[in-house]
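STRUCTURE:
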C-alpha cells in the first residue's frame, strides 16, 4: 500500500474496511480561521437553535438588521428590538436560516451564503437562497444586511467600514 501525503488544509480521513469517514474540522478548529468567520459560524449556530437569550450575548447593543429581502424598508435597530423581532417572527413564520459558505473579508467583516426556509403569510413554505453581509465590532454582531449577490455584499461591507464607529447606520 502506497501512502500519499495530504496538504495540511485537506480534511482528515480514516479508512475503514469498506468506507471512508470524513471528519469535519471546519467549525473553528482549523488553524487560521479568520475571526469574522468564527463569529458568523457561532451566530448562525445559535440562530439555528433558536437560542434567543444566547443570541443576546453575541449581538452588539447598536446592532442593525436590514430586512429588505423579507420586509422591504424595515430595519431593526438595537439588541432588544432585534431579539423581540426574532421571537415574534419565529413564532409567526418558523424561520430557519442555514449558512453554507463563509467568505471573510477581514477580522470584522464576512459574507455568508446560505438559505432561508420559512412560512409566508399564506402558510406556504418558502426556501430562498440568501447572501448576508455581516459586520462585527468587539466580537459582537453589529450589522446583518441581505445582498442580492457577492458584489453587493462587498459594497455594503465596504460602506460599513467607512462609517465611523458608533455612527448612524
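SEQUENCE:
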Amino acid at each position: 500500500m502506497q501512502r500519499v501525503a495530504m496538504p495540511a488544509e485537506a480534511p482528515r480521513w480514516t479508512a475503514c474496511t469498506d468506507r471512508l469517514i470524513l471528519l469535519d474540522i471546519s467549525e473553528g478548529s482549523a488553524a487560521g480561521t479568520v475571526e469574522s468567520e468564527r463569529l458568523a459560524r457561532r451566530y448562525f449556530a445559535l440562530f439555528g437553535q433558536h437560542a434567543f437569550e444566547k443570541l443576546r450575548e453575541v449581538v452588539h447593543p447598536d446592532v442593525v438588521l436590514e430586512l429588505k429581502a423579507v420586509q422591504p424598508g424595515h430595519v431593526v435597530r438595537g439588541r432588544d428590538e432585534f431579539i423581540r423581532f426574532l421571537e415574534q417572527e419565529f413564532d409567526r413564520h418558523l424561520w430557519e436560516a442555514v449558512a453554507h459558505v463563509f467568505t471573510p473579508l477581514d477580522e470584522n467583516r464576512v459574507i455568508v451564503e446560505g438559505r432561508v426556509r420559512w412560512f409566508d403569510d399564506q402558510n406556504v413554505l418558502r426556501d430562498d437562497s440568501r447572501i448576508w453581509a455581516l459586520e462585527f465590532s468587539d466580537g459582537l454582531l453589529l450589522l446583518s444586511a441581505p445582498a442580492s449577490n457577492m458584489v453587493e455584499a462587498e459594497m455594503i461591507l465596504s460602506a460599513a467600514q467607512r462609517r465611523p464607529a458608533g455612527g448612524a447606520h
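REMARK: The two ends are 60 Å apart (CA to CA).
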